[in-house]
Amino acid sequence: MQAPDELVNALLIVPLTLLPIMNPLSSAPIFMMTAGEDPGTVKRLARQVSLNCLYVILGAFFIGTYVLDIFGISLPIVRVGGGLLVATSGWRMLNRNDDDEVRAAVARGHATLSPREVAQRSFFPITFPLTTGPGTISAAIALGATLPRQPARYILAALLAVVGATLTVAAVYLIYRNAPRLLARLGDVGTLVMMRLMAFVLLCIGIEILWTGWAELNHLVQP
Q1: How far is residue 193 from each of residues 94, 124, 181, 199, 202, measured CA to CA in Å?
Q2: First and final CA of the chain: distance in angstroms?
Q3: 3-class state of residue 16 by DSSP
Q4: Global pTM?
Q5: Which of 53, 87, 103, 110 is the most exposed place for a label (fewest CB within 10 A)?
Q6: Is 73 left (phi over 0), alpha (psi -120 to 50) or beta?
């Protein structure tokens, strides 16, 4: 039987590891660019993104290593591919103008998205790669690899991991759900500046992830 402090540590290890990597605060402006200004759309999109994040985290946690083994994909390759996606998303956001489809819909007063559109826009790029990107997936896979192999301990650790993942996505939901209030304090100019700044940071993060994966691949092929 594990001590109470060990149980608390096992419960908190998932949110404490993943939330700094996910950093939903930095993605809040991009979330708002997709959701628009309709409160109902913001709520539905935040809920769908949170569910998507939960599925990605639990999938990476429990079956990530097996999937990579089946397809013969290494974590460095995941980092290279994910880094390319992140960098591409950042580049597109840096070059986004005010005539994109989301802003045009907001300007026309038709920013309310249908359930199908919410589902479509909730995954790329908000869920992946902005919120649960290669870094989050790699960290979740690494956490899953540390699960004990004894059946009883595995079940307990898995349950704690599920609760920890739920706490993580609950924090993501609260941040995205209240994104309009957070951005309202910045004003229009401040929000625009933050969007461009976050797009540049996202581009740099993508290049960093790509470079890390490339360096790991070079290390693997060196004699």
Answers
A1: 11, 23, 17, 10, 14
A2: 46
A3: helix
A4: 0.72
A5: 110
A6: beta
The token duo for 23 is 């950093």
Omega within 30 of 0 (cis) for the link into 125? yes
User: How many CB atoms lie under 10 A from the CB of residue 9?
Assistant: 13
Beta strands, E only, the chain: none
**Residue 46 tokens, joined:** 């935040």
User: Which residue type does 170 have?
Assistant: A
What does R_g of the chain's alpha carbons equal in angstroms?
19
Domains held by the chain: number: 1
Q: Among 47, 38, 177, which Cα is nearest to 111's?
A: 38
Tokens 């540590």 found at: 9
- How does 146-175 read in b/e, with b if 16+ C-beta sit within 10 Å? ebeeeeeeeebbbebbbebbbbbbebbbeb
DSSP 4-37: HHHHHHHHHHHHHHHHHHH-HHHHHHHHHHHH-S
**Is residue 18 within 8 Å of residue 57, measured between CB atoms?**
yes
What residue numbers bound the domain in which 56 lies?
4-221
